[in-house]
Fold this protein.
Amino acid sequence: MQRQGSNGETAVNRVRAAGGLLLVAHLAFVAWFMLRPLDVPWVSAANLRPFATIRADLAMGPQEAFCAIAEGLLLLAPLGVLLPMAGGRLLVSPLLSLMRTVAAGALLSLAIELLQTGVPGQVVDVDSLLLNTVGVALAHLAVVPAARAALRRRAHTRSRAAALRRLEAVEESAQGLTPTIPRVGIAP
């Protein structure tokens, strides 16, 4: 059982705080980037057919397609790491963590796409929703399981070291002091 304020709990609180701060900063950047009005001479129609924009990007050539698809994948990809980091859990099912993170990323991407309907110059595109969600999933799979495993190993090593120190302290105190007999006063 951990005490309040122990090193392990302090570290978890620091990770949560850092994750929360980075999450807010990233979401502020995404909101600014995706919801700012653009001054353009014309706007294309909204794309509600899956993979239509991706096919059009691929038709433009490999370099342009790579840049367009990478932009869609990377925009919300940090959420795949920041959402679990802000949660601060070490002992959680990898599948449930992935599902929770991907669902939250998809909902945030959907909210951004819906908010874009009222922003001049911005167009709703279902393919950006798909690419953003895949980016969140890929970032989560690439970083979170390995990071959690490393943190669990580190916490396990620390708990074993603390248990050994407690055992040594108990052995030392059991052999160190000579027992004394309390003095009893004489009865009247």
